[in-house]
Amino acid sequence: MRVHKFTSREEWSEYVWQKLLHHLDSPKANTLLNLLLSSYEKHILVNRLAAIALIKQGKTYKEIGNILWL
C-alpha cells in the first residue's frame, strides 16, 4: 500500500479502514466498530495503526509525518 497512490487523505483512510474490517473477518465486529466509532475516531485509529507499521519499518517521526500527511 503506497499512500501517494491515493488522491486524498479521506480516500486513503477509508481504504485502510475497509482493509482492517476485512481482516477482522467478523460481521458482528465490523458492525459494532462502525456503530461505536465516529468517522474522526476511525481516522485517528487508522493513522495510529499506520504509524505503528511505519515505526516497525524504521521510519523517523518526520518521515511518518510526511507519509501520513500529519
What's the short version?
The protein has 4 helices and no strands. The chain has helices at 9-24, 27-36, 39-56, 61-67.
Features:
73% helix; mainly alpha; 70 residues; 4 helices
Give me the oligomer status: single chain
Which geometry do the CA atoms define?
elongated
The radius of gyration computed from the alpha-carbon positions, rounded to a whole number of angstroms, is 13 Å
Counted beta strands: 0
Please report which band the strand proportion falls in: under 5%, 5-15%, 15-25%, 25-35%, 35-45% or over 45%: under 5%
- Report how far the terminal alpha carbons are from each other: 18 Å
List the secondary-structure elements in sequence, H or E.
Answer: HHHH
The main pleated sheet reads as:
none
Helix-residue proportion: over 70%
Average pLDDT number: 86
Treating each run of at least 4 consecutive H or I residues as one helix, how many helices? Answer: 4
Low-pLDDT residue spans: none
| Structural class by SSE content | mainly alpha
Structure description:
By secondary structure, the protein is mainly α. Helices cover 73% and strands 0% of the residues. Helix 1 packs across helix 3. The longest helix has 18 residues.
Give the topology.
Layout lengths: L8 H16 L2 H10 L2 H18 L4 H7 L3
Helix pairs in contact: 1-3
